[in-house]
Amino acid sequence: MQVVIAGAHGKIGLRLAAALAGRGDVVTGVVRNPDHGPDLERAGVTPAVLDLESARADELAAVLEGADAVVFAAGAGPGSGVARKDTVDRAAAVLLADAARIAGVRRYLLVSSPGVDDPPAPDRGEVWAAYVAAKKAAEEAIRAADHLDWTILRPGSLTDDPGTGRVLLAQPPVPLGKVTRDDTAAVLVALLDAPGSAGRVLELREGDADVVESVAKVS
Fold first, then answer.
1. pTM here?
2. Residue 31 in contact with residue 37, Cβ under 8 Å?
3. Cβ-based neighbour number of residue 80 at 10 Å
Protein backbone atom coordinates (compact mmCIF):
# COMPACT_ATOMS: atom_id res chain seq x y z
CA MET A 1 0.00 0.00 0.00
CA GLN A 2 1.18 3.54 -0.76
CA VAL A 3 0.05 5.97 1.93
CA VAL A 4 0.54 9.71 2.44
CA ILE A 5 0.20 11.04 5.99
CA ALA A 6 -0.40 14.72 6.68
CA GLY A 7 1.06 15.56 10.07
CA ALA A 8 3.46 12.62 9.94
CA HIS A 9 5.73 13.96 12.68
CA GLY A 10 2.91 14.26 15.21
CA LYS A 11 2.54 11.83 18.08
CA ILE A 12 -0.03 9.74 16.20
CA GLY A 13 1.30 10.38 12.71
CA LEU A 14 4.84 9.20 13.45
CA ARG A 15 3.60 6.04 15.14
CA LEU A 16 1.34 5.30 12.17
CA ALA A 17 4.07 6.05 9.65
CA ALA A 18 6.56 3.76 11.40
CA ALA A 19 4.02 0.94 11.68
CA LEU A 20 3.14 1.09 7.99
CA ALA A 21 6.75 1.38 6.83
CA GLY A 22 7.73 -1.42 9.19
CA ARG A 23 5.42 -3.86 7.46
CA GLY A 24 6.61 -2.85 3.99
CA ASP A 25 4.15 -0.17 2.89
CA VAL A 26 5.44 2.85 0.98
CA VAL A 27 4.86 5.89 3.19
CA THR A 28 5.27 9.59 2.50
CA GLY A 29 5.03 11.96 5.44
CA VAL A 30 3.98 15.56 4.90
CA VAL A 31 5.68 17.89 7.40
CA ARG A 32 6.10 21.64 7.63
CA ASN A 33 9.47 21.66 9.38
CA PRO A 34 12.39 20.30 7.33
CA ASP A 35 14.18 19.47 10.59
CA HIS A 36 11.64 16.67 11.07
CA GLY A 37 12.75 14.90 7.91
CA PRO A 38 15.52 12.80 9.50
CA ASP A 39 13.10 11.40 12.10
CA LEU A 40 10.83 10.21 9.30
CA GLU A 41 13.71 8.76 7.33
CA ARG A 42 14.86 6.77 10.35
CA ALA A 43 11.35 5.28 10.47
CA GLY A 44 11.55 4.29 6.80
CA VAL A 45 9.32 7.15 5.65
CA THR A 46 9.93 9.59 2.79
CA PRO A 47 9.47 13.19 3.99
CA ALA A 48 7.67 15.79 1.89
CA VAL A 49 8.17 19.31 3.23
CA LEU A 50 5.04 21.37 2.62
CA ASP A 51 3.23 23.94 4.75
CA LEU A 52 -0.44 22.94 4.66
CA GLU A 53 -1.46 26.42 5.81
CA SER A 54 -0.07 28.06 2.68
CA ALA A 55 0.18 25.31 0.06
CA ARG A 56 -2.13 25.04 -2.95
CA ALA A 57 -4.16 21.92 -3.62
CA ASP A 58 -2.23 21.17 -6.80
CA GLU A 59 1.09 21.35 -4.92
CA LEU A 60 -0.14 18.83 -2.39
CA ALA A 61 -1.70 16.71 -5.15
CA ALA A 62 1.76 16.26 -6.64
CA VAL A 63 2.82 14.58 -3.39
CA LEU A 64 -0.24 12.32 -3.52
CA GLU A 65 0.33 10.99 -7.05
CA GLY A 66 0.14 7.20 -7.04
CA ALA A 67 -1.09 6.94 -3.45
CA ASP A 68 -3.71 4.39 -2.42
CA ALA A 69 -4.79 6.34 0.66
CA VAL A 70 -4.25 9.54 2.61
CA VAL A 71 -4.46 10.11 6.35
CA PHE A 72 -5.01 13.49 7.99
CA ALA A 73 -3.31 13.34 11.38
CA ALA A 74 -2.21 16.97 11.56
CA GLY A 75 -3.21 19.47 14.21
CA ALA A 76 -2.36 22.98 15.29
CA GLY A 77 -1.25 21.69 18.68
CA PRO A 78 -2.06 22.67 22.28
CA GLY A 79 -0.12 25.92 22.20
CA SER A 80 -1.93 27.38 19.20
CA GLY A 81 -4.63 30.04 19.19
CA VAL A 82 -8.07 30.36 17.69
CA ALA A 83 -6.91 31.27 14.17
CA ARG A 84 -4.69 28.23 13.71
CA LYS A 85 -7.40 25.87 14.89
CA ASP A 86 -9.21 26.86 11.72
CA THR A 87 -6.26 27.02 9.34
CA VAL A 88 -4.88 23.62 10.38
CA ASP A 89 -7.62 21.50 11.93
CA ARG A 90 -10.22 22.51 9.35
CA ALA A 91 -8.68 24.14 6.30
CA ALA A 92 -5.70 21.78 5.98
CA ALA A 93 -8.01 18.76 6.21
CA VAL A 94 -10.12 20.22 3.40
CA LEU A 95 -6.98 21.00 1.40
CA LEU A 96 -5.97 17.34 1.64
CA ALA A 97 -9.41 16.32 0.37
CA ASP A 98 -9.11 18.73 -2.56
CA ALA A 99 -5.64 17.42 -3.36
CA ALA A 100 -6.91 13.84 -3.18
CA ARG A 101 -9.57 14.70 -5.77
CA ILE A 102 -6.95 16.14 -8.12
CA ALA A 103 -4.65 13.14 -7.64
CA GLY A 104 -7.45 10.59 -7.95
CA VAL A 105 -7.07 9.19 -4.42
CA ARG A 106 -10.36 8.04 -2.90
CA ARG A 107 -9.41 6.55 0.48
CA TYR A 108 -9.22 9.21 3.19
CA LEU A 109 -8.85 8.72 6.95
CA LEU A 110 -9.50 11.74 9.17
CA VAL A 111 -8.32 11.80 12.78
CA SER A 112 -10.93 13.93 14.51
CA SER A 113 -12.02 14.49 18.11
CA PRO A 114 -14.78 13.35 20.46
CA GLY A 115 -17.34 15.93 21.45
CA VAL A 116 -17.87 17.51 18.05
CA ASP A 117 -21.54 16.57 18.05
CA ASP A 118 -22.22 18.63 21.19
CA PRO A 119 -21.78 22.33 22.01
CA PRO A 120 -18.42 22.92 23.74
CA ALA A 121 -18.58 23.46 27.47
CA PRO A 122 -18.46 27.22 28.20
CA ASP A 123 -15.81 26.77 30.87
CA ARG A 124 -13.32 25.28 28.38
CA GLY A 125 -12.62 28.67 26.80
CA GLU A 126 -12.59 30.11 23.29
CA VAL A 127 -9.60 28.13 22.01
CA TRP A 128 -11.28 24.83 22.86
CA ALA A 129 -14.51 26.04 21.28
CA ALA A 130 -12.59 26.97 18.12
CA TYR A 131 -10.92 23.55 18.08
CA VAL A 132 -14.23 21.72 18.34
CA ALA A 133 -15.77 23.96 15.68
CA ALA A 134 -12.84 23.33 13.34
CA LYS A 135 -13.00 19.56 13.80
CA LYS A 136 -16.76 19.55 13.24
CA ALA A 137 -16.41 21.64 10.07
CA ALA A 138 -13.65 19.34 8.80
CA GLU A 139 -15.84 16.31 9.38
CA GLU A 140 -18.76 17.90 7.58
CA ALA A 141 -16.59 18.81 4.59
CA ILE A 142 -15.11 15.32 4.32
CA ARG A 143 -18.47 13.61 4.68
CA ALA A 144 -19.88 15.80 1.89
CA ALA A 145 -17.04 14.94 -0.52
CA ASP A 146 -18.49 12.32 -2.85
CA HIS A 147 -15.06 11.70 -4.39
CA LEU A 148 -13.81 10.21 -1.12
CA ASP A 149 -14.17 6.83 0.56
CA TRP A 150 -13.72 8.36 3.99
CA THR A 151 -13.51 7.07 7.54
CA ILE A 152 -13.54 9.45 10.49
CA LEU A 153 -11.86 8.31 13.71
CA ARG A 154 -12.49 10.13 17.00
CA PRO A 155 -9.98 8.90 19.59
CA GLY A 156 -10.60 9.80 23.21
CA SER A 157 -8.13 11.56 25.51
CA LEU A 158 -4.76 10.47 24.19
CA THR A 159 -2.05 9.01 26.41
CA ASP A 160 1.55 7.93 25.84
CA ASP A 161 1.08 4.69 27.78
CA PRO A 162 2.16 1.53 25.93
CA GLY A 163 -0.48 0.17 23.60
CA THR A 164 -2.50 -2.83 24.67
CA GLY A 165 -3.86 -3.95 21.31
CA ARG A 166 -7.34 -3.93 22.81
CA VAL A 167 -9.88 -1.15 22.31
CA LEU A 168 -13.49 -0.05 22.21
CA LEU A 169 -14.40 0.99 18.66
CA ALA A 170 -17.99 1.92 17.93
CA GLN A 171 -20.23 4.39 16.18
CA PRO A 172 -21.27 7.36 18.34
CA PRO A 173 -22.45 8.06 20.90
CA VAL A 174 -19.73 6.62 23.12
CA PRO A 175 -18.89 7.86 26.66
CA LEU A 176 -15.76 9.96 27.03
CA GLY A 177 -12.62 8.10 27.95
CA LYS A 178 -8.96 7.70 27.11
CA VAL A 179 -6.94 5.64 24.63
CA THR A 180 -3.24 5.27 23.93
CA ARG A 181 -1.60 6.81 20.89
CA ASP A 182 -0.09 3.39 20.13
CA ASP A 183 -3.53 1.81 19.92
CA THR A 184 -4.86 4.75 17.90
CA ALA A 185 -2.13 4.20 15.31
CA ALA A 186 -2.85 0.46 15.27
CA VAL A 187 -6.53 1.13 14.60
CA LEU A 188 -5.62 3.46 11.73
CA VAL A 189 -3.48 0.71 10.19
CA ALA A 190 -6.37 -1.74 10.49
CA LEU A 191 -8.80 0.79 8.98
CA LEU A 192 -6.52 1.22 5.98
CA ASP A 193 -6.74 -2.56 5.52
CA ALA A 194 -10.55 -2.52 5.79
CA PRO A 195 -12.22 -0.75 2.84
CA GLY A 196 -15.56 -1.76 4.32
CA SER A 197 -15.02 0.81 7.05
CA ALA A 198 -15.57 3.63 4.54
CA GLY A 199 -18.50 5.88 5.34
CA ARG A 200 -18.19 5.31 9.09
CA VAL A 201 -17.72 7.78 11.93
CA LEU A 202 -16.06 5.84 14.74
CA GLU A 203 -15.29 6.62 18.36
CA LEU A 204 -12.19 5.01 19.86
CA ARG A 205 -11.51 4.35 23.54
CA GLU A 206 -9.51 1.85 25.58
CA GLY A 207 -11.37 -1.42 25.83
CA ASP A 208 -11.27 -5.20 25.80
CA ALA A 209 -11.61 -6.12 22.11
CA ASP A 210 -8.77 -6.94 19.73
CA VAL A 211 -7.93 -4.09 17.33
CA VAL A 212 -8.29 -6.05 14.10
CA GLU A 213 -11.45 -7.79 15.27
CA SER A 214 -12.93 -4.44 16.33
CA VAL A 215 -12.29 -2.93 12.91
CA ALA A 216 -13.70 -5.99 11.17
CA LYS A 217 -16.86 -5.72 13.27
CA VAL A 218 -17.54 -2.09 12.36
CA SER A 219 -16.71 -2.77 8.71
1. 0.97
2. yes
3. 16
